[in-house]
Structure prediction request, 922 residues.
Amino acid sequence: MKNFLQRSILIALLFVSYFADAQTSGTATGKVINGKDKSPVDYASIAIKRLSDSSTVGGTNTNAAGTFTISGLATGKYKLYVVYLGFKTITRDFELTAANSGINFGILTMEDTGVTLNAVEIKGEIPPVVVKKDTLEISASTLKVKENAVVEDLLKKVPGIDVAKDGTITSQGETIKKVRVDGKDFMGSDPLLATRNLPADMVDKIQIIDDMSEQSKFSGVDDGNREKIINITTKNGVKNKGIVGNSTVGYGTDDRYDVNLNANYFNKQQQISFIGQFNNVNKQNFGGGIGGGGRGMQFIGGGSASSGGITTTNAAGINFGDTYDDGTQVNGSYFFNKTSLFNTNNSFTQSLLANNTITNLSDLNSTTDRLNHRLNFMIDTKLDSNTSIRVQPAVSYTENTGASLYNYNRTVGANNTIGNQNLKTSSETPSISNSLLIRHRFQRRGRTLSLNINTNINDSDADNFNYNLQTVKVGSISTNTLLNQLNDNNTHSLNNTSRLVFTEPLSKTLSLETNYQNGYSFDNKERFVYSFNNATQSYDIKDNTYSNEYENTTWTNSIGLSLQKTEKKYNWNLGLAGQYTTRTNVNVTTGQELNQDFINLTPTAQFRYNFSNSKRLTIRYNGRTNQPSIDQIQPIPDNTQTQIVPIGNPNLKPSFQNSLNIFYNNFNFATYRTFFIGGFFNQYFNAIANDQRVNTTTGIIQNGYANVDGNFSATVFGNVGQPIIKGNKLTLQVNLNANYDKSTNLSTDNNTNITLENVTKSLSLTNGYKLVSNLDKLDLIAGISGSWTHAGYSLASTVNSYTLAPNIDVSYLFPGNIRLQTDVTYNQTTGRGEAYNTSYTLVNAYMSRQFFKNKGTFKLSVNDLFNENTGISRSVANNQISDVNFNVLKRYYMFSFTYSLGNVGGRSMNMQGGQRMRMGGM
Prediction:
């Protein structure tokens, strides 16, 4: 019996071995010759890639006779690459089957490229997208953009990426939070400073990463704290030693000016960048500023409408990064910006509360000035061979000053209130933060210990001078009131979170994490209001109704376990933590104290399955608590606003949120076809909602807060990229996005004291079609997008609105390096109030010519050629619908000059042309 089993096993092994050999016995042969003199090409690079996922399955070099043989190929469809410096790359598609397992390509003739060898690198055909674990990698060489383009122009051509007019970048439904350059943070955590300043021609690849926290990357166990970031990898020539950047100076009609300065120095691991921007044409190549872009139409769901306006900007910054021989990484940046916004708008707002509808017509004229300094630093170094430390402090200081004139006409029922408010504000907001990460790796592989401490200190000192004269008319009786007050607001906030993590491998593919987290949060807010004293001509009469000092202290302790399984095709993670929270609210003014305790379980789960190098499914779930802010719990009204008076509720409970995210992507590297679909689903318990009480005489809304259940939101999105011209030269991109939101708010009528629930169910659908070219001379992005928004209210009628926005941005490079460009957008909105339905066409155009060996570009441009630009927005938030018309930048002409720094290793980047891809990057 034993011998029979041994013979059976031997026969089975022989059979399997034969079968496996039969599956991988395919061969590819051929001979490579020089097309000019028919001589053999010795040492040409040969590679074979699988068409389904673009993975390399074989490679070799030709011998002295020019011949090659690659064996061990399985059945399937492939592409052959033949590459040699100075010759055009040869590609051939072929298929191996069980019946035909070998192929002889015969004579392969290589043609001269006609350029000198010292000016080129080898270029291969590169798939536009490659999937690498948590990363989507896009080869910049497959994307064609205009001269002097920046990284943002590249991103606009990447399938699945949406770049909004304000520069906000979303990928697969998530907002990009940070941009790195060759793995190093660039200018802190402001993506726009990289995407709107760095030149596109320095980019080799764009990597979109689902980035884990630094602690998770070290331990290898996902803690669920991920954010979507972009990493820009630079070309080798730039990275090794290069100076790149574009600087522009422009002046136009109506005293419009636009100056952009950018210079970047790279020397292997060292990076130094300078950025400067000075203009009065609504351009901000950074985040956190004030004001908006040149286009006017917006729809905002669940938030406030954009203020629009005309912004003057002055900004400058410097970034430094380096990695030393011992592995120590250092990164730092300083950024300064000063902005001034002039804004005029008129609005129509409907508040749907209880059995009342309050309408508010208003006009606003305001000027806002902001001064901001940001300083960021990071050092990551090893203390010994097993222990490392990472320290990342940041400092920010902001000054705001503003003055506004606000006229309003508010109606509720038969009652009417007319008012004029003059509001002057000033504030100073310093903030300091630090992240400390200590990591230790034990001798046993996979066993780690790490401690992460994050600290944030934020202070604010603000003074608001509020002068408000209003007339309330009830029937035939009119009452005049005057409010002339100083609001002195001071806020101090300290937050500290410490997380200790220990990981232990249970097997080669299974690991266990134990974690403990401690959180401390302290907030102190002083609001003292003083009325104007005519006798002393100063603000010295304290108004106790609106004055208060309040403190909130929250301690959170949690302990949890997480189990992770990692296999070749898939990995999963399951975690659970028990969380105990204690909160103490102290009303310093009255001496009252309220203590609350809460216990929660916070689960996490993740599953990722890789069907192949091009297909991946990812599912993530987490449950977490959200604490109310001090503004939501401080029980004192704030009368700065004319209609809504917020007041906190100290009895609020933390809300709990269940979040489920699902992603699926499929990229066909052979045809350049891309497809992804995904969804976000959020369920809320004890959600913090508005609890509004209506004064039916004045229309003033006291906005309190309460916990409610039943809130839910969902977003489903998808994108398909289908090449129309082979080789990714012209691609049709189709996207579809659907958003659903259900929220509950409370409203009470002061007269009847009856509280009603107003359930808002909103649904929005957006569909877009876009043609994107990647051609040498013609640059085209053309498409059409439309949206439908439906909002249903349990206490009011439904509201529907529609937008339609076709657009074409096209340019062509004519002989003599002359480029003509035009950007045409038609905007139409319907379903709003009579004064807020609009349609207009926005046309921007320019003509440019390159000089000085293509390093300099003169440009004559026009903004809003037909002078039709219109500022309009709609916001739908809970019980409120607001339509706003605001001032925007109108027609102006500008003449500008751009100079491009492009020295790479002593040579101009413009001399390196399009043939720059190494064989290893195919």
Summary: The helical segments are 2-23, 151-155, 192-195, 214-219, 236-241, 630-633. The longest strand covers residues 477-505. The longest helix spans residues 2-23. Residues 1-23, 114-124, 293-306, 910-922 have pLDDT under 50 and may be disordered.
